[in-house]
Write a structure and sequence with these properties.
The complex is a heterodimer of chains A (about 180) and B (about 210). Chain A is an alpha/beta fold. Chain A is built from six helices and seven strands; from the N terminus they run H-H-E-E-E-E-H-H-E-H-E-H-E. Chain A has a six-stranded mixed beta sheet with strand order 1-7-6-3-4-5. Chain A is elongated, with a radius of gyration of 26 Å. Chain B has six helices and eight strands; from the N terminus they run ααββββαβαβββαα. With about 210 residues, chain B is α/β, with parallel strands linked by helices. The longest helix of chain B is centred in the last third of the chain and has 22 residues. The chains are: A alpha/beta (about 180), B alpha/beta (about 210). At the A-B interface, helix 1, strand 1, strand 2, strand 6 and helix 6 of A face helix 1, helix 2, strand 1 and helix 4 of B.
Chain lengths: ~180, ~210
């Protein structure tokens, strides 16, 4: 006598998750490999810079041997423009901090922890000279807010020119729509 | 019906156990993937939200070294682009100093920043000054950095076309071989000083500087 098949009442249902997991893993691996975390100098930056747009002849911002000169409008005092100097190589900063003679004590202390320091024009000149001496391959980049007046950019250009640094970069944002 | 089903369940399980006494030979095994998928999703979400795809770019610039000796330059080989405080750009070739030379009919011309690429292309490839044109970019101290980069960007865009255009021609090098013409870019950047402002105002440019109007 054939036993009548008793249909089990299904309470839930099962979805095959394999394709979903496949895609998720693929994305995860992609993002993990393409992610580049901020350099310490960038992480120390307390302000946001709205970069100017450019479309031609641009290369990626280098991650090594970079000396950044930030020019930013002070948040608290809009008429004041501040210069910041930073490095991507920790060793460059350490060598300058420990060996460069013309550094004020206060700045030396700040450089124990910070990768980006606020400087005046005289200090900027010293740091450019020091960076050039410490790291011959240093690349200089001006990272300025797009609303900054040319006057401040010109000051930095002149300081660099005086220190025989005649090749430098402007940090820009790639123009997406043409 | 639903209640009956629930009640009947243990029975059917028992029954199933009884009938399936013969153990099936297992060929694979199941792993509970749920925690793995949980973590994967969590990580995925983290990376998705923290990643910014647009990385900052750099635009390289070379400035000529400071020279103290005066260099004679032919007026016809000098292209000047002036960026004013309010963002207007003017250009002229040669000089516009009408105080020094009242017969000078050269006038600065207004140009949109987006059109500078065409201007640079055209001027740099003019037959008589081809590849010898010097570009001088003068910027008012109060002009925005944003606009300055836009102008530089335009000049860089033009540069690509100029190089392409020049490489179609050939020149004879020192060894007597004919090689494609090498582009010699001559570019310098400076501040639009009071003298330049005066010259612009004299040649009919209005509102060069706010101080002049007052």
């Amino acid at each position: 006598m054939p036993v009548p098949k008793i249909r089990k009442k299904r309470m839930g249902f099962v979805i095959d998750m394999t394709p979903l997991v496949d895609i998720t893993f693929l994305l995860l691996v992609f993002l993990m490999f393409t992610t580049k975390f901020k350099s310490e100098a960038e992480a120390d930056q307390q302000f946001t810079i709205a970069r100017p747009f450019a479309s031609a002849d641009t290369a990626k911002l280098p991650e090594k041997d970079l000396a950044l000169i930030n020019i930013d409008i002070d948040d608290k005092n809009p008429t004041d423009t501040a210069y910041y100097f930073g490095w991507t190589n920790t060793s460059d900063r350490d060598t300058i901090r420990d060996t460069y003679p013309d550094l004020p004590e206060e700045l030396r202390k700040t450089l124990q922890v910070e990768m980006l320091v606020r400087v005046d024009t005289i200090m900027l000149s010293h740091l450019i000279k020091a960076t050039k001496a410490v790291n011959r391959n240093a690349i200089f980049a001006i990272d300025a807010d797009k609303d900054v007046n040319f006057k401040y950019i010109n000051t930095v250009i002149n300081i660099m020119n005086k220190n025989n640094q005649r090749v430098f970069n402007y940090v820009t944002q790639k123009r997406t729509s043409e | 019906m639903a209640g009956g089903g629930a009640l009947g369940r243990p029975e059917s399980v028992k029954k199933g156990k009884k009938t399936n006494r013969k153990k099936k030979k297992r060929l694979g095994f199941h792993v509970d993937m749920t925690p793995l998928v949980d973590i994967t999703f969590l990580l995925l979400m983290f990376f998705l939200f923290t990643t910014t795809m647009l990385k900052p770019q750099v635009m390289e610039m070379r400035i000529p070294p400071e020279i103290y000796a005066q260099v004679e330059v032919k007026a016809s080989e000098l292209l000047t682009i002036c960026l004013l405080e309010d963002g207007r750009t003017y250009w002229y070739v040669g000089t516009i100093d009408i105080e020094k030379d009242p017969t000078n009919t050269n006038r600065p011309q207004l140009i949109k920043i987006d059109s500078i690429k065409y201007l640079a292309f055209e001027q740099n490839l003019k037959p008589n000054v081809k590849n010898r044109m010097i570009t001088l970019f003068k910027i008012d101290e109060k002009a925005k950095y944003d606009l300055m980069v836009s102008v530089l960007d335009q000049l860089n865009i033009a540069e690509m076309s100029i190089i392409e255009e020049l490489s179609k021609e050939t020149e004879v090098n020192e060894q007597g071989q004919s090689v494609p013409v090498q582009r010699k870019r001559k570019f310098t950047i400076s501040v639009l000083n009071e003298d330049d402002k005066k010259q612009l105002t004299n040649t009919g440019v209005e509102g060069v500087s706010k101080d002049v109007i007052q």
